Amino acid sequence: VGALYTLQPAIVNEGNFGDHLRLLKSPDNTAIDKRITRLLKADRSTVYPEVRSSISILASADQPINWVQLLSHMIGWNHPSRYVQKQWSRCYYSQAIISNDPKENIQ
Questions:
Q1: At 97, is the secondary structure helix, strand, or coil?
Q2: Alpha-carbon gap, residue 4 to 56, rounded angstroms
Q3: What are phi and psi of 22, to 5 degrees?
Q4: Which residues neighbour 29 within 8 Å (Cβ) at sequence distance 6 or greater?
Q5: Around Cβ 48, how many Cβ atoms within 10 Å?
Q6: pLDDT (0 to 100) of residue 29
Q7: pLDDT (tens digit, 9 = 90+) per residue, 51-63?
Q8: Interatomic CA distance for residues 22 and 46, integer angstroms
Q9: Is 15 left (phi over 0), alpha (psi -120 to 50) or beta?
Q10: Which of the pair, 10 or 94, is modelled with greater confidence?
Q11: Which residues contact 23 (CB under 8 A, 6 or more apart)?
Q12: How far apart are CA 97 and CA 86, in angstroms?
C-alpha cells in the first residue's frame, strides 16, 4: 500500500475504499460499478492491480483516500468472513452522502 501512496497523497480520515469510489459514481457511468465488482471479486493475488488502477482514478478526480483504513483492509482482505469486501460493498451501494469535509457528512 505504501507504494500506492505516491499515486494519491491526499488523505482523508473518514470512510473506506467503497465510500471513496461511491463519490465517483454517476447514473451515466457504469464503469465505476464494474470496477467495484472486480474489486469485490478479487482474491489476494489479484486485488493489488485492481486497487492500484482504482487509486489512479480517484487521484484523477482529486478524491483523497483513507490510507490507514486501506492498509488495514488490505491486511484483512483474505479473512474467511470477507468482512472487508462486505464493508466496501455496503458503503459503495449505500445512499449515504459522504463529503471530503467531515462537517458536511450526512449519514
A1: strand
A2: 9
A3: -60, -35
A4: none
A5: 15
A6: 74
A7: 999 999 999 999 9
A8: 21
A9: left
A10: 94
A11: 61, 63, 98
A12: 18
